[in-house]
Amino acid sequence: MRLPSLILLVVLFLTACQPPKKSEYFKISGFAQGTTYNITYENSKNEDYSKAIDSLLKAFDKSCSMYDSTSIISRINKNDPTVEADDWFIDVFKKSAEVSAISDGALDITIGPVVRAWGFGTEPIAKHDKTYIDSLLQYVGMDKVKLEGRKVIKKYPGVSLDVNAVAQGYSVDVVSQFFEDKGIKNYLVEIGGEVHCKGTNAKNNVWRVGIDKPTDGNMTPGGELQAIIELNNKSLTTAGNYRKFFVENGVKYGHTIDPKTGFPAKNTLLSATVVCNDAMTADAWDTAFMVLGLEKSKELLKNLPGIDVYFIYSNEHGEYEVYFSEGMKKMIFEQK
Question: For the whole model, what pTM was predicted?
Answer without folding.
Answer: 0.88
